[in-house]
Amino acid sequence: MVFGLAAPRDFVLKRDVCSYGYFLLAPNRWLPREGALERVFSASGRVVTARVTQARRGGELKVALSRSVSKSERERIGAGLSRMLRLDEDAAHVRAFHTLDPRWKASGRARLFRSPTFFEDVIKTVTSCNVTWPSTIQMNRRLCEVVGGGAFPSADQLARTRVQTLRARCRVGYRDARIVELSRMVARGEVDPGWFEDPGRSDEEVRAALMELPGIGPYAANNILQLLGRYAHIPLDTESVRHGRAVLGLTGSAASVMKKVRAHFAPFGSQMFRSYWFEMWAHYEKKAGPSWTWETERTAKTFTASGMK
DNA sequence: GGTAGACCTGGACGC
DNA sequence: GCGTCCAGGTCTACC
């Protein structure tokens, strides 16, 4: 079963998929040789794999499903892929970023890969806190295998999962209770993804609400903001400190380097995160080659703050 | 408002 | 093969 998805005229699949680490996390799979993105979805209780390819820049995306699904399921998968690839960020939106930071005009870098749902972005962010990258890869792989049956688990599925199961089988450590509680809040409707996705709300309003969620601190809240398309905050972590020291030549304690990194990127205002991120990404690519050649297992061995020094 | 220490996992290292 | 150390944000208690 094959269907098409219209892409913005500047859209390049390999560049725009391989723009943020989540493209390496289950149930996503980037195939470097084929230049294709594979993603497992759940449809009517069964898994289905979507394979996305693009023949030329700006051309329609071809989505091949591993089995047939209903029209409504196909539309849901299409909407999920559109969110992941930020197809709503058109060429004019990209130009606005490049006007503020022309360094990325030549490469066209602007879109940042994300998940098909707000819920998955939140859980993925929790699995990236206080762990090295290989553990984040493992946690997402096991959440999909153990709870989601191959796909990323829904809020309902995770809400019904025992805390002990998450710890013992998914190896999420002390994040177990936080993940279950978060999932229950979404499953019960206490946390409404639509509220967070509403562009009418201010950054500060959304950030404050995120900080109320279990397992979400300043770093995670700022990261979820960028995943929501709000780029005026930087999730400062040990990577920021490494980048500040190694690339920007900043000195001092970790806390003072973080403050200096924030001040360094402040002139980019509403686009601060993207300027920061693509600068770091360029540094990774300098070390490890173009991101669309990366394979999950290789990044698991090299992508840590200490490993990228 | 700022800070110390606990929370888990997995990899690196020394023996 | 075993023990120890370390990296990595959030949360709570305390000053």
Give short descriptive properties of this protein.
3 domains, single chain, Endonuclease III, domain 1, globular, TATA-Binding Protein, five-stranded antiparallel beta sheet, alpha+beta, 309 residues, DNA-binding
Q: Can you offer a commentary on this structure?
A:
The protein is α+β, with helices and mostly antiparallel strands and 309 residues long. The chain has 3 domains: 2-104, DNA-3-methyladenine glycosylase AlkA, N-terminal domain (TATA-Binding Protein), CATH 3.30.310; 118-227, Hypothetical protein, domain 2 (Endonuclease III, domain 1, Orthogonal Bundle), CATH 1.10.340.30; 238-301, no CATH class. Helices cover 48% and strands 10% of the residues. The protein has 15 helices and 5 strands. Strands 1-5-4-3-2 form a 5-stranded antiparallel β-sheet. α4 runs antiparallel to α11 (218-227), α5 crosses α15 and α12 crosses α13 (254-265). The longest helix has 17 residues, at 272-288. The mean pLDDT is 95. The chain binds a DNA duplex (15 and 15 nucleotides) through α5 and α11.
Instruction: Report, as a whole number of angstroms, the end-to-end distance.
Output: 45 Å
Mean pLDDT value = 95
Q: What order do the helices and strands follow?
A: EHEEEEHHHHHHHHHHHHHH
Give the CA-based shape: globular
CATH superfamily of the largest domain: Hypothetical protein, domain 2
Question: Briefly, what is this?
Answer:
This protein is an alpha+beta fold and 309 residues long. Helix content is 48%, strand content 10%. A hairpin with a 2-residue loop joins strand 3 and strand 4.
